[in-house]
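Two records follow; treat each independently.
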Amino acid sequence: MGDVFSITLFTLGVALLSTVLILPGGVALGWLLARRRWPGKALVETLVALPLVVPPVATGLVLLKLFGRRGMIGAFLENTLGFPVVFTWKAVVLATAVMSFPLLVRTARVAFEEVDARLEQAARTLGASPWRVFWRVTLPLVGPALRRGMAFAAATAVGEFAVTLFLSRPEWTTLSTLIYRHLGRPGAANLDAAMVLATLLMALALLAFVAIDPPERHKAHA
């Protein structure tokens, strides 16, 4: 029971940390995709969406190649900065961030596209700088949608499995990988344990979603 409790806390911590880490980049990229035209935009859109459409095994292999000790990024991080990634808790955060990032970007992009440009223009005619318009007008307007995007990202991170399995070790077990290990063992007891853990995992995903984007907010905006 103690192991399950610590694994649950670790799963929640990873999900929340990965969501916080992808928030600035997700919002910025969503704004760029919605408001600007630039060379390579279509390519970036495709790359961001790839984790949602390619098999997770492929995503895991790519990350392992890039962030492994001999990888292009991993070798630099470990040898230069003393910051190993693969097979540490940081690899679990990386895996969940990569898989949830497209959801946040897509939500942010749609939100920025739906903002009434006349409201921003009115603020600019009153002398507000572009940065002030963004913080005082645009961001509050897209705030509810961004919270939904964060909620989707956190819920996805809670249940992420395949990529995490590639990059982590048993000591950095999440609930999803624990379920997988129970299912890999024979016996009705392991199946029952997997079912209980699956129920717990779904409850945590719902909790993460509701905590970030509570239903009361939707009633307030209705």
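The next record belongs to a different protein.
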Amino acid sequence: MRRRFVWMIVAVLLLPVGPVYAQTVQPRAAASWVEMAMTQIEAEAMSDATMLPAVPDALDREWRSFNTRGSSLGALADLGWIALVAFVAVVLEKAAARGASRRPVRRIRASAEGPGMFGLLGLIVADLVGLAVFLAVWGAGRRHLLDMVGVSAAFAMLAMNVLVRWRVAALILGAVLRPREPAARLIEVSDAEAGRLDRFLSITILVVIALVGFGRYGLMDEDSGAAHVVGIVNAMIVCGLYLWIVFRSREATEALIRGRRQSGVMAAFRAGLAQA
């Protein structure tokens, strides 16, 4: 009993020591962790600053790598050939999608209750037909034209990755906005706003995908630390474009969350969610 009583007294006396020790050690540990992080960030910033003069040479070297002969003008000409093939593929894609959507569009316009599930699915199938035509035309142009004019395989592969992702994103945007078919539009916006928003999002997303692809291609240059600086600048530009997209499409996103229903508990809930 005496031993237990002694240990109880010792424990009571040591109780204030624990918090005091924690209060003294934890701030020191937190301070040391913050100091280490700030020191590391400062070292990274100084290292990136020292690599700034090498950025123009790194960009020029990366641009020249797109051409098989290492020529900057040749890379620009190759980009022109790629843009020409992509333009033809997009035109044929839109023509094929419009031709395949004639029957679903007639069915939607003839329905007094608005677009049904089968009508919307028919439009999506038509969009997929257009995407398949784009892939077929691009593949044929790459094999028969781009290879013939001397476009490098790396440049053609990068362009294909960018263009395919862009057309998939454009397909999703078109399925929501439907600038040419208001009856099948999933959100309540005007025809003019739907067209402007579709063009803005399509172009901006193309720029974002191209910048991301260019940045990943440049990061393969492991011999130069300038690729790290280019990646940071690239990420800042992409994040800025994302913010622009968020503010520009805010009203359309709110309309998409609200839906078309105007009364009821679910309509009030979705309206509050859209405002939030």
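Discussion point: Residues 17-50 form the longest helix (34 residues). How would you locate this feature using only the token line?
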